[in-house]
Amino acid sequence: MKQNEARCLPKMSHSSAVPAAPDHFDFLVRDEHHVANGTLLGFWLYLMSDCLIFAALFATYSVLSQSYAGGPTGAELFDLPLVALNTSFLLFSSITYGFAMLQMQQGKLKGTMIWLAITGVFGAAFLGLELFEFYHLIHEGATPQRSAYWSAFFTLVGTHGLHVTFGIIWLITLLLQLRKHGLTVPNRRRLFCLSMFWHFLDVVWIGVFTIVYLMGSMS
Question: Residue of 11, 39, 45, 197 with fewest CB within 10 Å of its CB?
């Protein structure tokens, strides 16, 4: 009886019981790993967080704008023609960066790099004049330790200067990437991100020039 039951049972082959192993495994994802517009959205979120930082610095400066502690005031030491020249450097750098973006959209690598280099020169000139201004103020006794006003001034203007410094370093790095790889999709995306960052710094500086220098000279 058992022999008949054994004959009725289907025979299981090794091929049906155990799935065949694939010939090879491919762990490399060859598709684009960036979500469409994901980098630009993330960079916008970063800029919003930077807006909060500068908003806090502007608010601190406004609260301490009359706290001179018997020391020199901004109206006594600010050199408005020099600051206006410095402002023009940064505004011109924004225009030249716009020309670089136009060249990029036309697929002209050489033109893009030339306008980016000009932008970097304007940015470096802005930083040079800003450092000269800091040297002049410190030489006149307006150090960050002199009063709450000058502490807020150096913190606000210095933070903006640090952002410009990082932007120039980023621009130089991007120039090297363009020279090596050309106008690839990742490099175009980086150019867009740096463009937003650079124009953001221009907008912040207009606020600094108006609130700190113009209003400070009239107070």
Answer: 11
